[in-house]
Amino acid sequence: MKFLPLDRVRLLEGPFARALETDLGYALALDPDRLLAPFRREAGLPAKAPGYGNWESSGLDGHIAGHLLSALAFLWAGTGDAEARRRLDAMVAGLAECQAANGGGYVGGIPGGQALFEALATGGAAVAELGSSEHWVPWYNLHKTFQGLIDAHAVTGDERPLRVVTALADWWLPIADRIDDAAFERMLDTEFGGMNDAFARLAQLTGRAEYAAQAERFSHRAILDPLLRGEDALTGLHANTQISKAVGYASTAVATGDDSYRRAAEAFWRTVVEHRTVAIGGNSVREHFHDAHDFTPMIDDREGPEFCNTYNMLGLTRVLAERELRPELLDFAERAIFNHVLASQHPEGGGFVYFTPLRPRHYRVYSQAQLGFWCCVGTGLEAQARSAAEWVFGVEDGSPAVNLYLPAEASIDLPDAALPGVRIRVDADLPHSGEVGISVDPDGSRAFALRLRVPAWADGLAGLRVNGSPAAATAVPGAVLLERTWAPGDHVTFRLPTGVRSERLPDGSPWQAFLSGPSVLAARAGDARLDGLFADDSRMGHIAHGPLLPFADLPVLDPDEVPEGLEPFAGIHDSRYTVYWPISDGDPAARTARLRELDDGLAVDEATVDAVALGEQQPESDHAFSGTGAAVLTAGDQRWRTTSESMAVRMRTAHARVLRVRYRLQQTPTAVGVRIDDELIAEERFDAATGVDAEVLDIDYPIGEFAGRASARVGFTAVDGLPTPAIGTVRSLR
Hints:
Layout: E1 2-3, E2 9-11, H1 15-29, H2 32-42, H3 63-79, H4 82-102, H5 113-118, H6 125-128, H7 138-156, H8 159-177, H9 181-187, H10 195-206, H11 209-217, H12 221-228, H13 239-256, H14 259-275, H15 296-300, H16 307-323, H17 327-343, H18 375-392, E3 393-396, E4 399-402, E5 408-412, E6 422-427, E7 435-442, E8 446-453, E9 462-466, E10 469-470, E11 474-476, E12 479-486, E13 490-495, E14 500-504, E15 511-516, E16 519-524, E17 566-568, E18 577-578, E19 581-582, H19 588-598, H20 602-607, E20 608-613, H21 617-622, E21 626-635, E22 638-652, E23 658-664, E24 670-676, E25 679-686, E26 696-702, E27 711-718, E28 726-733
Helix pairs in contact: 1-3, 1-18, 2-4, 3-4, 3-7, 3-18, 4-8, 7-8, 7-10, 10-11, 10-13, 11-13, 12-14, 13-14, 13-16, 14-16, 16-17, 16-18, 17-18
């Protein structure tokens, strides 16, 4: 399918148009000079304004500037707002100034970034130490600059951002030539965003083969090869890291003509959408893919689907649909846009959501424009500016297509340039009403087929009429075609079902969500203890830290029972909510007993001052992880850290009395020294003589003497040449 440029589409009054305007307000509230401050610092130029804090001053400096370039381009195209275009041009000019001052083509906001990347040419230690608390994930960061400049050119047609980004790409090429394939592959173990996608898009824009070759080099074989073998090897992996790679696989297939990349992208899409995606269109818990056969973490955890994942899955879906339209691609896009995308921006002020918990009766928190600079702020800025508008309309097999039923209008050029185009307007208010009206207004009478999507949740388009008279249509996969000679003012009407239907979790476990039309429904569950609802600038402000409510008093429903008080989830804000409900499956008593078991961890959660899951990227970053000789281990969907030297995190310890460490014991002898601010508080040894039968155990250490400190460095060191046991979650407890 050929999707329409954003400047040919306008959203009409409704929740999506309001979200677009809210997004524009949030984008214009950001100060470009503050976002460009890291780039000027790295270029040796005086700052025009102080840089922002939060993630923008903790190693990921400059990443939001790249996101904002993309968002401003989309916003200008989608609204025509002159200030959005002025700021876009000014930011591109600012990056060009920094690039000139750097010399050689590099431009970035990463602390010491140019030297860091150029050191990669030697391979070895530079590659192994690419990710750190100082630099975080440098390729991921630099990718945002690549992507923002590419989008700025692709959307506006302006050659200036293309000149900046090609100079940046050319700076990298001779460095890459000096890195052997083994070292290059090791480099890709650290999250690198969609660099394969960026180089593939540059290859398509410029026709330069060396960019296509870089797209292939950035196609991480550790993920690519299992996909080509038809394996789902995603459990335990950081989800968004892999999604961005899959977007790049799909783009690389287009740039190179190598169909294996497309097959890998298709396999990834099916694995994630068909087996790992919940009702709202999101996936993952605590940013990682859990076991696809056990969705308990999705129901139990406060850190549900991450928004970046869904945004990037939409990007993957679009590249696949542009090559070959299949009904399930549009079904996923609709699900994600009507639910996760629309729900992830606050309607007043526009704050963006990082995690969307699906634990019953929990809530989500929102960024504040001058305080929060998470990754999901960046993708949120982009998503609200483009996701609905770019999917509503398209052209397939020469026919204008209506893909989503939401208020919008478009001007569509049909393939035969000698014939006039057509304007199409959609009027719909799903799920509140199933009545849909489509106005078709060609520039003069002409014959063509109008393609109308039939959603998977609808048996067809009921009562299909043109100008009030019944109309015959030809069914094709996922759509119907209305073939006729169209005249200005023609009007199509039909009905879509808006009754409530149910949907189990993907693993088939007895938890049920309810939907009406394209929308997931939820019930409000009060507004008590919405701690941190509007997040501050702390590193973990994006997590809804308020108390978890128990499962045991949830109503257990019969499979065909519909709870009261349901409304579209995307419209619920500033409130706790329930999306998934426990189902009896014929044994309510057993189901209630299982819910009580799930409550066993509530006391520990309530007593937790701070917790860090070692081996998980974001918690480690939030807690300033550092280590030497440290490695990540994966067991099922759980991740752990072990070290042959030392590792440490910074944790909150105010009012804490106990440090609880979860160990996973290996077969070989292990030993660990536990330290608080370098003071040894305990030493443990585990071997056959220890007599510990448990594979996983928690050990508590008293730390009351440190309770007066706001935070402390919690460290683990190897003892007597033995590696430490694998260490999972570390908690400071009241």
